[in-house]
Amino acid sequence: MELNGLDLKWPGVLSLGVLVAVALAFLVHRMVSRRSARAAAAVANSTALTELPEYRRALRLHRIRMAVLALSAVLLGGAALVGAARPLDTTVDKPQTRSRDIMLCLDISGSMAAYDATLVATFKSLVKSFEGERIGLVIFNSSAATVFPLTDDYDFINDELDTATKALSGDPEFESFFAGTFNGRGTSLIGDGLATCVSSFDKVDLQRARSVVFATDNHLAGRPIIDVDEAGELAKAKGVRVYGLNPEEDGPDDEALEMREVVTGTAGHYYAMGDQSAIKGIVDSVQAQEATLIDAASRSLYSDNPTLPIALAGVGLLGVVGASRRWAT
Which positions, given as ranges, span the membrane (predicted)? Predict the structure, then answer.
């Protein structure tokens, strides 16, 4: 963030005020000059009075009070004008974002029902470990739907994951969460789901680290448009690393082996859901990927800064009151 200095919200108020003050000063000067000319009168033998030390001291004090009053009035009026013009501190903010994108990809088919709420809790744990990375969420069954696109608004992300937890726990109020995931034939079309997640990254022209956290039991039921091996090849072609979470692995089996081969083929890693090191392993692997800071569009920020004009107006007011009270006494 770069400080640009003091600015005025309404500079025209200051310009207009200065013109009015100059005009008033000219009018007052003319009135005082005319009155002085009419009141002037020759007084014989006044030199004896004006030469007295007491007279000279009184005249000197009078002139000092007049100077203090004039300067204080100018200070008070000037500070009031500056305050009316709304002084602002202007800063230029140059935000930066990290060039890591992470897409959370969740299978919500019937075979995953017992695990989905736990997987969303796992996703929330992952999100807490990131700072500045963009996160998105895609869910899939017979077709895939984007719950929210890539964003670095972590409050929004956590709110959406809370909604996902309620929906996946069977709350009927959140049935709309599943909209768009039943538009195909079959269930758990894993290849289509992974391909959709891989294709959900934007800014493909930038050198950004892109990762998919892919949670599925890999129990295919139906004929997908893209099988899981082809989706893995698509991920490799786009430079996307896939981190697999399998909640149902119970020892080695063909489906788990296939999923392991797909995700490791993208330079990602495979984890069983019961693996206590899964979350830390995914976070460490994602953060180990090289990332650069990307400058976002600069923006000017303004904040009121009335401290100086208020302080000067206070000094001016004290001067005016002090000089005026001296005359009154």
Answer: 12-28, 66-85
Which H, E and C letters describe 265-311, residue by residue?
Answer: HCCCCEEECCCCCHHHHHHHHHHHCCCCEEECCCEEEEEECCHHHHH
What does the pLDDT read at residue 1?
A: 45
Q: Which backbone phi and psi does 149 adopt, to 5 degrees?
A: -75, 180
| Predicted pLDDT at 298 | 64
Instruction: For the chain, give the number of residues.
Output: 329
Does pTM surpass 0.90? no
Q: What is d(CA 206, CA 98) in angstroms, rounded to the nearest whole number?
A: 12
Write out pLDDT tens, residues 222-255: 777 888 889 999 999 888 999 988 876 655 567 7
Q: Please name the amino acid found at residue 217.
A: D
pLDDT per residue as tens digits for the range 125-156: 888 888 778 889 999 888 888 999 998 889 99
* Contact predicate 138/103, CB 8 Å: yes
CB environment 140-165: b (16+ within 10 A), e (fewer): bbbbbbebbebebeeeebeebbebbb
Q: Confirm or reject CATH 3.40.50.410 for domain 96-294, answering yes or no.
A: yes
Q: Are 125 and 158 in contact (CB under 8 A)?
A: no
CA 151 to each of CA 130, 193, 300: distance values in angstroms, whole numbers, following the listed order? 12, 20, 22
Separation between Cα atoms, residue 178 and residue 142, nearest integer Å: 11
What mean pLDDT is predicted for residues 144-171? 89
Q: Pull the structure tokens for residue 207.
A: 């050198």
Q: Is 117 helix (H, G, I), strand (E, B) or coil?
A: helix
- Helix H or strand E segment including 15: helix 11-39
Is residue 159 very low, low, confident or very high in pLDDT (cuts 50, 70, 90)? very high
Which residue, 219, 229, 201, is CA-closest to 105?
201
In 61-168, beta strands by DSSP E: 87-93, 96-98, 100-107, 134-140, 144-151
Residue 246 CB neighbours (<10 A): 25
- Which DSSP state fits 111? G
Where are the domains positioned within the chain? 2-89+305-328, 96-294
